Amino acid sequence: MARKTYKRENRIDAMFARLRKEKRTAFATFTVGGDPTFEESLARLKTFVEAGIDLIEIGYPFSDPILDGATIQKANRRAMAAGGNLSKTFELCTAFRKEDDTTPLVLMGYANPIIALGYERFAQKAAAAGIDGIIAADLSLREAGDLLKALARHGLYMIPLAAPTLEAKDFAVDQPGLGGFLYCIPVVGPTGGPSASQDAIAEAVERCRRQVRLPVMVGFGVKTPEMAAGVASVADGVIVATALIDAFVALEQEMPLADPAFQSRVAEKLAAFRAAI
Amino acid sequence: MARMQKREARPGRYGTFGGQFVAPVLLPVLDRLEAAFREAWSDPTFHTELTFLLNRFVGRPTPLFDIPAFPARAGGARIVLKRDDLTFNGGNYANSAVGQCLLAKRMGLSAVVTDTGSGQNGIAAAATAARFGMGCTIYMGTRDAAQQAAAVKKMRLFGAKLEIVDDADRALSAATSAAIRHWMGHSDTDAYLAGAPIGPHPYPEMVAAFQSVIGKETRLQLIEGGIFPAGVFSAVGGGSSTIGLFSSFVDDLAIRLVAVEAAGTGEPGALHAARLSHGQRGIFHGAETLVLSDAEGQILPAASIAPGLAYPGSAPQLADLVHRRRVETVSVTDSEARAAVRRLAETEGVLLCLEAGHALAAAEHVARTMEPHEAVVVMAPSSGDKDIDILWQDD
């Protein structure tokens, strides 16, 4: 896909260039901005980086996360209950950027908060908050023309999503505003659902590579370090979301968030995945 | 003009509304559905079977019916009801349930999944799926299921699997989201059956096509009766009966098309369901349309005494017709709607649903300003049996 030159290189491109040199596979995770609170969320972002996560997807809380399974729906509700929304998620990213100007941040969510703000203002605010790309679950490329133009003007990428049944024309489009990586979804269904077999994942990645020159990352259904290792053997990156949120929620039942050991236990969970990837 | 039409023409666009705002995984499913629908719609044998089922299984054509004793005082226009309340199983929802099940069967699918608010779409889907020997899963909010206990029993009697959703608004909106999630995981075997002309293309077009039988019948019956209506009134929930009725009159510019929305209790600041008149442009359940949403783009809950009207989104075609000022909107409160239903029952022996009560109350109000030789048509989508407990509460 075409790459334009902006004032600075997009952090996602920089990350993949760095990992290629180091011959490493990217490890990405997902968290809902403001889940369970703004402060805890900020602390968690920092822990992610310390534990070796290369890229962070940040969900902006939405009332109706239709593509998501129960775990992420609940995370959205917790964040909304704590006052989270798209504006607060921009604030969270701005706060994170004060200490970290390297780790790529990818916003993930739904179209209505974006359209409520307006495509141009959204892209401008996202760029100002240090965001590098967006994943919009219900904004297919067929409908994304105006948004892509706005993103391109501000040096941001929309990350294309590729499902196994999707025709290439619906994900392998070469136009400004699209880039970063290809998000390969090897299963059909909402997040947190059944996992694909290793063969199915390999086949899905191979199909993506034939169509697109972008790095290919695999998400949806990666639940264990063993599965992550399998994905890492065929893809450029592994995205672990639901499994880690479930782990954090379970941890909250064991110890209070304020416990100094909490963040280190979180880091341990992440380290097991990092070691496998 | 060119400036107004900023967006290029795409399938499923109604002016700037509509589109396909879905997870990419659904695009091929929607493409297959669109192709199958176009192929079926141009096939005479499909229409023969559809008409047979509409006549014998649904109970069409439904009559136009005068209600001379209903108006509160002498004078004003004549009010005529389009009586889809006299159909079997689910009122006007049966029109599109039959069409969509027929299509799903033709596509080789073995089951349908849908959502229901007032229970009527669920009943229509369950009955039709039973007729076709197909599996049927229905999602319904906890709040709606508690209010519509008889509908729940009826759906189960038809063999449907009911999934009660205790999430978000615990009503139609949450049920729709849950049904779509189910569909995403089962699209190789299950057809999503849309109760309303909402959602991504081709659903609005397809549901409107199956519901157009209401408008075609009404137009013919008006001509046969020598009536040229001054206005056509329909309450707007998902918009299935409204699109169905309006579709035959959109080009008759002398006929006022009035979409009646639920104002809720009418108290200042209280929840309502008037998204065509008070909603903002947004993306919800797969289409760009008018939605009840806050400045941050969060979907707001909708409220109405009529369960079928309490939905925060709207049909993209209706959003466009309102945007183009072809369709007027008025809002009616819970108590006005209930009073209209009760008075119709007492004066005419016809028990309509609370959804229709909204349209009836609005029509009566407007009819008073008209001449006695004029007439207005009011859509009666289903009977009031489902609302007996709500109607009875204040006694």
Automatic annotation (TrEMBL), chain A:
Keywords: Amino-acid biosynthesis, Aromatic amino acid biosynthesis, Lyase, Tryptophan biosynthesis. Pathway: Amino-acid biosynthesis; L-tryptophan biosynthesis; L-tryptophan from chorismate: step 5/5. It comes from the Bacteria. The active site is at E57, D68. Its EC number is 4.2.1.20. SUPFAM superfamilies: Ribulose-phoshate binding barrel. GO terms for cellular component: cytosol. It is an enzyme of class 4 (lyase). InterPro entries: Aldolase_TIM (IPR013785), RibuloseP-bd_barrel (IPR011060), Trp_synthase_alpha_AS (IPR018204), Trp_synthase_suA (IPR002028). One of its GO terms (molecular function) is tryptophan synthase activity. The keyword Amino-acid biosynthesis applies. It catalyses: (1S,2R)-1-C-(indol-3-yl)glycerol 3-phosphate + L-serine = D-glyceraldehyde 3-phosphate + L-tryptophan + H2O. Pfam families: Trp_syntA. NCBIfam families: trpA. Tetramer of two alpha and two beta chains. HAMAP family: Trp_synth_alpha. Belongs to the TrpA family. The alpha subunit is responsible for the aldol cleavage of indoleglycerol phosphate to indole and glyceraldehyde 3-phosphate. This is Tryptophan synthase alpha chain.
Automatic annotation (TrEMBL), chain B:
Pathway: Amino-acid biosynthesis; L-tryptophan biosynthesis; L-tryptophan from chorismate: step 5/5. It catalyses: (1S,2R)-1-C-(indol-3-yl)glycerol 3-phosphate + L-serine = D-glyceraldehyde 3-phosphate + L-tryptophan + H2O. The keyword Lyase applies. One of its GO terms (molecular function) is tryptophan synthase activity. Keywords: Amino-acid biosynthesis, Aromatic amino acid biosynthesis, Lyase, Pyridoxal phosphate, Tryptophan biosynthesis. Residues 59-380 form the Tryptophan synthase beta chain-like PALP domain. Pfam families: PALP. One of its GO terms (cellular component) is cytoplasm. Tetramer of two alpha and two beta chains. NCBIfam families: trpB. This is tryptophan synthase. It comes from Martelella mediterranea DSM 17316. The gene is trpB_2.
